[in-house]
Write a structure and sequence with these properties.
- It contains 31 helices and no strands.
- The radius of gyration is 31 Å and the shape is elongated.
Length: 699
């Protein structure tokens, strides 16, 4: 006994002695990974420094830097404070660029540059811009290292983000502003309570963010929202926190020292006037343009940087639910910035850098969850391989074949060469002589296709109304299925069998015949003789009722909200044909929902409550909705055409495009869209099925 006890004590002592060693090994490995990712980021940005042409904004900022260098060389602090060149942005980054020019010597700032635009290679410009670009690239690499300390995968994603590489490798204002915005976000994420050190340092970082560029400080609204969400009693702490951020902003913005209110108002007012300028209106970007930047990459400089942003952005958006449960602040930071970019009329691509950090953190979370799932499901590897062979690969092959924009050419070569060419096209790396493929950043272009959004809206509204009516009616009919009430039971069973045995197409065609104007049967049942299949007039025209609200929102430059109200009004301005298709959806979905409801009621045993039958009902409704979603034959048999627009389902649009040999890449995109929506429904089904299993185990 004593020998065993001594052995246990020795083992415990060995474990205790090795713990610091293991801890140091983990720390050193993390440091090595961070250094490796930061080195990669720095290398990509230094390469971009050498290869990128001069941006149209770089000369403006460098001219301001030259003026600051002249004032600093003369020791004239008042001139620095009163300098109004490029006053629409805070001066901190331009001041740093001025210090760099001052260190170069008088020849770099004695003669102010003019607007060179994109004239790369002009004598003397490259050397003038290089120190500022090197500083921005170094700060960009530090930002990557900062993110990598918290999450190495996210740091890697920021390191290869083309927008972050581009705008942290040029003499722009993005690099330092993005660094302090990332620091604010990460400090708040580390804050455990509202008065600890990260909480106050985050206020300092937020003030420095605003002192570099205003748009990056929009994340402060997300911080306030999150702090109140975490603890509403911290409201009184937000006043000194916000005051500290404002104080830091004031101290590091010399142009505000003499007249803070007036000069801040003039600076912000410049942007209010600029959004309605000829330059902005001429470009004409829509309110959803930030999504195009987010889903795409910097395609203007191919070969300078990797173009993987769209892939990782999609992954990041998929991770929003998981990230919301773990780090709600990151999702709020992303959402608030995207909402601001949607509403702000100026849609320049550099603004998307404001969301590169949160979208990378969300994408990293998705990759980590996927890796964890793969580790847990090792015993399912044979099944996963089989699914990949018989389901995933055919879908991927269909996408690759249909994504060719030019079907007149044929691709000859090995399968490996085919897949390499496909991914080059998807990642916007196609070159001359290769088949052009649909890139990821082109997705938003066909989303704006006039037929797509009405079709998607019809799909969703029709599905909700059909399944809602079928579910409610199915539950009610299931309550009539009582052995002791013979007449009600026989009636409900007859209705169930009748609906079940009649083919879907036959039932739809019967309704079409009943209400067709040629046979005048249904149209003469009412005195008004409504034309159920041909009258395009809406039952209630919500579009006309919403016009004043849409005009008012447009006058306030709230284009996204105006578009939302207008779209909802158009969606609910349904015609008679829409309601006929709803009846058809009810006809098709009712038998299964009735059967599911009967089973749920019998399983609930003594008392029937919604909490008891909800998992059954939701699981059945999701399965039936997934099948109904693709039922393009219902509107096709009802109307026989793609009109009116309320009956355009995605699957029906797909059928017509395939029939009339339209550009097959649109067909492929619709395929992927339908697949994504159905997979979303099936994931919901899996969740409720798991709930059923858990409830049974508890019982």
């Amino acid at each position: 006994m004593f020998a065993n006890k001594a052995r246990a004590i020795a083992i415990k002592g060995t474990i205790t002695a090795t713990r610091p060693l293991v801890r140091w090994k983990l720390v050193l490995s993390r440091v090595a990974v961070v250094l490796l990712i930061s080195t990669l980021a720095l290398g990509l940005r230094l390469r971009a420094v050498a290869l990128l042409p001069i941006d149209t904004d770089e000369d403006d900022y460098m001219r301001s830097a030259q003026l600051y260098a002249q004032h600093l060389a003369a020791g004239d602090l008042r001139a620095v404070i009163n300098e109004r060149d490029n006053y629409e942005h805070p001066p901190l980054t331009k001041l740093i660029y001025g210090v760099l020019l001052l260190a170069q010597g008088p020849e770099s700032y004695a003669h102010s540059i003019t607007n060179y635009g994109n004239k790369n290679g002009v004598e003397g410009i490259a050397g003038l811009f290089r120190p500022a670009r090197l500083f921005a690239a170094t700060v960009g690499a530090l930002t990557v290292g900062l993110v990598a300390v918290v999450n190495p995968v996210a740091g890697l994603l920021v390191a290869i983000n083309s927008w972050h590489i581009k705008y942290s490798a040029q003499a722009m204002l993005e690099s330092l502003a993005c660094f302090f915005a990332a620091l604010t976000l990460l400090l708040l994420s580390r804050s455990k309570r509202s008065c600890d050190a990260p909480f106050w340092w985050a206020a300092v970082a937020l003030g420095l963010t605003a002192a570099n560029k205003y748009v990056y400080a929009v994340g402060g609204l997300a911080a306030v929202w999150w702090l109140l969400w975490r603890d509403w009693r911290s409201l009184w702490r937000l006043l000194p926190w916000g005051g500290l951020a404002i104080l830091i902003f004031y101290l590091f913005d010399p142009t505000l020292w003499l007249d803070p209110i007036g000069r801040l108002g003039a600076s912000v007012g410049f942007h209010a006037d600029y959004v309605s300028s000829h330059h902005v209106l001429k470009v004409g970007y829509g309110w959803a343009q930030p999504l195009t930047w987010l889903m795409g990459a910097d395609v203007w400089n191919p070969g300078v940087m990797p173009l993987l942003d769209g892939v990782f952005s999609i992954v990041g958006l998929l991770a929003i639910p998981a990230m919301w449960r773990r780090q709600r602040l990151v999702v709020l930071w992303f959402a608030v910035n995207m909402l601001f970019l949607f509403c702000w009329p100026t849609k320049w691509p550099q603004y998307i850098v404001a969301v590169t950090i949160p979208i990378s953190l969300m994408a990293a979370q998705w990759f980590q969850d996927a890796a964890s799932t793969v580790r847990r499901l090792q015993w399912l590897r044979p099944a996963l391989v089989l699914i990949a062979a018989i389901a995933v690969y055919p879908l991927a092959l269909q996408w690759a074949l249909d994504a060719v924009l030019n079907k007149g050419k044929s691709f000859r070569g090995s399968s490996l060469a085919f897949w390499l060419a496909t991914w080059r096209g998807i990642l916007t790396l196609s070159s001359a002589g290769r088949l052009p493929y649909l890139p990821i950043d082109a997705v938003m272009n066909w989303v704006n296709w006039p037929i797509f959004l009405p079709g998607l809206a019809f799909n969703i509204l029709w599905l909700l109304m059909s399944m809602g009516l079928a579910t409610g009616l199915g539950i009610w009919l299931a309550t009539l299925w009582r052995p002791r009430l013979l007449a009600r039971t026989v009636l409900s069973r007859i209705l169930f069998v009748l609906l079940l045995i009649v083919p879907e197409w036959a039932g739809v065609w019967a309704w079409n015949t009943l209400l067709n104007v040629t046979y005048v049967t249904g149209n003469h049942l009412t005195p008004s003789h409504p034309q159920w299949l041909t009258d395009p007039a809406p039952v209630v025209d919500f579009r006309h009722l919403a016009q004043p609200l849409v005009a008012w929102l447009t006058s306030l430059h709230l284009a996204p909200l105006a578009a939302l109200v207008s779209g909802l009004a158009a969606l609910f301005s349904t015609d008679k044909t829409f309601w006929l298709t709803v009846v058809m959806g009810l006809w098709v979905a009712l038998p299964l929902m009735m059967l599911v409801a009967i089973t749920a009621i019998r399983e609930s045993r003594l008392t029937m409550t919604w909490s008891r039958i909800r998992p059954y009902i939701v699981a059945g409704a999701v399965v039936r909705a997934a099948l109904l979603f693709n039922a393009f034959h219902i509107p096709l048999l009802v109307t026989g055409a793609l009109q009116p627009h309320q009956t355009e389902k995605l699957s029906l649009i797909w059928f017509y495009l395939l029939r009339f040999r339209a550009q097959s890449y649109i067909i492929a995109v619709i395929d992927i869209s339908i697949l994504a929506l159905v997979l979303g429904l099936m994931s919901r089904y899996q969740r409720h099925t798991a709930t059923l299993v858990a409830n049974r185990n508890c019982e």
